[in-house]
Amino acid sequence: MPDSRFETSEGHPGTPDGFQRLWTPHRMVYLAQETGHVGCPFCTAPEGSDEDGLIVFRGTVSYVLLNLYPYNSGHVLVCPYRHVATYDQATAEEVAEIGELTQIAMRVLRDVSGCVGFNLGMNQGEVAGAGIEEHLHQHIVPRWRNDANFFPIIAQTKAIPRLLGEVREQLAQAWPTTTTLE
Predict the structure, then answer these.
(1) What's the pLDDT tens digit per position in 146-174?
(2) Structure pTM?
(3) Which domains, from first to last, does the chain contain?
């Protein structure tokens, strides 16, 4: 019996593409069109404990947290605390700290996980693919030579080998205690 969470593209509008769809209604919080910062996961994450918010490091004007729906183990995000939508709206201090924390995250991920490359990116606005378009965040995705890059294409499944809490704890412990902006 097929799993009811999966559905092919057959019978739906558009051109069938061969992929199954995994329905994830729990992600609606990320897609909801909220006004202001009410319900914004990047505004609420720093309000709780590091463990609950998956926060790796808290800086002065920005912080690092694990992506709740990672592309790979160790996929982190760097966000300003301030609720701002795009990079050009960030202050010089936010831009500097986001840059510094991105560099540190890359070093820590390389040391902790042995990754050999990274995908870095900021999707600005809905048309650019931003899942949470109203709060600026930079993705840092560690990559390995044989990291099952084509597994989603072949099996339409994402394989994430490590638990988020385990990865958060390891990265937080490896994070340097001081940065140049402090």
Answers:
(1) 765 555 555 566 667 778 889 999 999 99
(2) 0.73
(3) 23-172 (3.30.428.10)
